[in-house]
Amino acid sequence: MNKVWENDLVGVLADVDQSELLYRDSILINKQDSLQFFVRIISQPAESFPNVKAVTGFYSDLEKWGFEDDYLQPEFIRKEKLREWLDDRLLIFKVEKRIRYNHEEVYNMFGVRVMPKLPSYEKDLKLIPVPIFSQKVNGMGQGEFISRLVEKKFVGRIVEVSHEANDTPPIVLWKEEMNEDEQFTVYGVFEKHQYAHGGFNFELRDELKGLDLEEEWLDECYLTDESPNVAFVPIGIYQELLNRLEEQEAVQVSSEFARENYPQETGSGSASLEQQASPDIQGSRQEVAVSVMEKPTSEINVPAPKGNEKEQEFLELLYSHTQDAGLIYRKENLINFHTSMKSSSLVILSGMSGTGKTKLVELYSQSLGLKGEQLTVIPVSPSWTSDSDLIGYADTLNMVYRPGDSGLINALRKAEDDKDKLYIICFDEMNLARVEHYFSQFLSILEMDHGKRVLRLYNDDLESRLYNSAQYPPTIVIRENVLFVGTVNMDESTYHFSDKVLDRANVLSLDVMPFTEMKQLPEKKKGMVARADEVDYDTFESFQYKNRSISLHDDELALLWEVHQMMQNVNKQVGVGPRIVKQIDQYLGNLPVQEYILREDAFDLQVVQRVLTKVRGSEDQLRELLGRYNREKDTVEGSLLIRLFDRYTNVSIFKESRNVIKQKAKELKYNGYTM
């Protein structure tokens, strides 16, 4: 399986004995009569990067940087010319692993850039990548940056360094641009981090400390416009910075920044705590201040980094609309629902009757500013048994196409024509009939690549004979601007979902909040505050992060693999599956900037919504997997899944997953089976 590492690495032309021992030289002429060379990595790679001696580069990588190859020259001259050219240069690049036809793994450079070697360069040079934050890139001043570090808030994205869980940079740099000068401050020491749409979220080892990066240190670091958001620091200087930073006094904070940027809110739920002290960072070139106010509970999100304002505005409006409508959803529910809508082909809202599942879909649509046919709610009938009940059929007796009464086909035709607008189609109480019967065509096409999602209404040979074929052509393209969502109740009047449905859907269960909170809701308004503008498809697409490759951490993948094996031991037809892994990866990548659901919480939710929904069967099958419920202690004993979660606490504490396992173990004890 191909894999891409998108963090920047630095390398030099490999020595002869470091060129993977495949060739006698680190430069060769390949079968295409093109120069090929091997590069030794001298910067710290991501933890998941394998221990390979060299990566491969090609002449085409260097052509844009001024190197010219003369194909008319003898091979030894062409190779020596490249060797001399590379001798004074370092290469910055990313790496892709490819599997060749003979199953051999090769590691190729891409995105290659060039920078000169410094006079201090030595053969055994080792570089450590340190992320650089700045107002220009991250959309905040130094004071707000420090505030967010102290308060464990997101500080922005730096794509050039590794985001893997075990690759936390102990120190970061802040770049302050003053006239034509650039001045750098080192901050740390950090021991953990998370990375989401809001970028890095750091956890301090102790207290935040700061130190100016002196000119003599700066002169030894590799900084270049070709990789402007990362400094490659020699390991000796890096260690000295860590030692000097540990000796500094902790950054003292001031409430000045808090008063300017986080005004105290009035009303229930808002609170503030001010603590004043003099800013005192040894050697700091400017006064800094840190907010120490508590976050008002009326806010749904932390202030967003640059580029996320519209999504933040949408989430705040959604929360406001749910309160105005008298619904008491937890903010985590709303964020979970929105993230699922961004990342899933089908979202299913589950819960007891009366929790407002359909209303939530309507409020979501209103918060996006959708109007008319842009939201289609389709009540599912218990009598539906085939696709024709939903999409209609070709009446060959009267030679017309008769669409279903649901309005689905008209909405899809409209969405096909208005590709710039967003459409939501909601199947209300979708499990009143068997989903696998009336929804079978959709289940097959929803997982296809966009552009290939085609819904067939009737055979092509009927098109010229049907009177209304211009209005209803034989096929409809389902574009990316259509979002599908369903609501379900789990009771004696409904059908349970098959694995075919569960493989394609995020199944969310909405929480019922304490009834006392209903008294705290604002008085229901006659009319909700409407959006000033409609969120079109392009804007909604800007909310989305479409992963090009799997970015799950190694521990997360290892856990999912072990869960898959456990489920396979119970039933060979049930497991996690590659599709679910990809969809979990999409969900985590699409988690919006906020502080209510962190990455470990999101992974826990995905285990509940994508994996544990498939754990169904009898007590004999599932006793070891789920464990035995002890009614006296209200605990679960002997669960293989819980033991597994205990081993992977670095991934998540799995609070929600443990609750679901406990509920399923109860069902086994009292019913003999769980569904």
Automatic annotation (TrEMBL):
One protein family per Pfam: AAA_5
Domain AAA+ ATPase: residue ranges: 343-508
Record SMART domains: AAA
A Gene Ontology molecular function term of the record: ATP binding
Region (Disordered): 261-290
Composition skew (Polar residues), residue ranges: 263-285
UniProt cross-references to Gene3D superfamilies, sorted A to Z: P-loop containing nucleotide triphosphate hydrolases
Entry protein name: AAA domain-containing protein
